[in-house]
Amino acid sequence: LIFEGEDSPPAAAVAELLPQFEELTGIKIELTRTMLSTLVTKLLLDFTTRAGKIQVFHADPYQTLAPLDGHFVDLRKLMEDPSLPSLPLGREDFTEMNWIGDAYMIDDERVLAIPFSGCQYGLLYRKDVFKKYKDMFVTEMGYDWTPGPNITWDQYYEIAKWINEKAREGVITEVEWGTGHMAKMYDSLMCDFSNVLAAFGGDYFKGHPTVGTYGTDLPGRCTLNEPEAIEAARFYKKLIDIAAAGSTSWDWGGLHDAFAAGKIALAPQW
Fold it and tell me: Which UniProt keywords apply (predicted)?
């Protein structure tokens, strides 16, 4: 079987289990791991040409599951077949939101995928930098800069810009930039911008309650031309202008590597 996966930790975990799977079933799996954009292109080509060369794949909810759901095997039939092995830890191994966001489309009548990649958005930051220069920042800017739920996006911008300036002056030597972003034009840019869009009260569509959960083929009116969305876009552009050089060429992998290399103090990471 041909397995097309994204070049990500979950696919690496699958690769480690392949020898065990082949020994157990006698089925040989040929796993290819590529960038998400390449994976989506290969899948769309395979589906639209009906080539059928790819049997198993990483089904991104937005990029592949939503546009191609009508051509997926309903896994519920296999899961309920007593002659086949069941999920090792049962459906309870995944949260209900995992199933809703990753396995269903429109409703839960069909199971189109098995959740195996539970992506979460988090803010990575250099604890050493924020501890060492905390008093200096408070003295100059007047508030506690420790990352947390009380920090606004305007303050985030101020913090990132302040670190940039101190790094240029040679005061801060641990990092080169205040913030970095996965602002490469594609899925990563959408993920990164969505945080800002939501904070400004904006959204992508208006009119259907299951956009972003179960999914829908009737999302309603696009709202990216609403004042909240426009203001969010202006702020995001301002933020990227002071972000680490290279941010507009990074997806989540590039941002991860830059943070791991010690170049940036803050990294909103998918």
Answer: Signal, Transport
